[in-house]
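Sample intake — Delta(3)-Delta(2)-enoyl-CoA isomerase
Collected from: Lupinus luteus
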Amino acid sequence: MCSLEKRGNLFFLTLTGDDQHRLGPPLISSILSTLSKISSEATPGSVLITTAHGKYLSTGFDLSYARSAPSPSEALDRLTSMVESLRPVAAAFMSLPMPTIVAVTGHAAAGGFMIPICHDYILMRSDHGVLLMPEMDLALPLPDYFATVMRERIRSPAALREMVLRGAKVTGEEGVKMGIVDSVYDSTEKTTEAAVRLGEELARRKWNGDVYAEIRKSLYPESCRALGLTQKDLPSKI
């Protein structure tokens, strides 16, 4: 599941409970409802910081839940349902009316990688944790919106190939070189502290959240189409 805490202008969304934070129906629903609450409570200067307890940010979809279905067809239905239910979560992150920062202090794999890649800023530990897309090894196709978001967020064709077609385990320092990760730190505490410092810096700008969200959408038009997001016409103030 996940928890929500607010300190001043900073919202802290923390994945809790199961150390692997598998993206099954309960966790997906919990994240989506929490993001809806954050969006409704946003004010100028709000910032989201996403973190997780334990060794992992998320190991992706709950494949054990899918495989426990009574038949192969029902297992496929469960997996398909989880894939589709994560789409609005990605859309919610991409349309949140505030800057978003994720502190990756553990592994973010497969569907779990969609959480950091949908944030504005990715901060990561240098001594633990990897970014990983193991779909080739799992013999699972890449969902269409995964591919679209990753193409727009990972601009280097070589980096995209390494992650998706080779299933490379990307450390924080490698992620910086690839242009995926913004900065790295040598402990969970330092990573989280850096996320808070960045959050406080951004919060001081007191940006209009609706404008921020619409400008973000304009930067990633293909992702927005894949996620079912449309841009809103906002009145200009001169």
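Post-analysis note: The chain has a mean pLDDT of 94.
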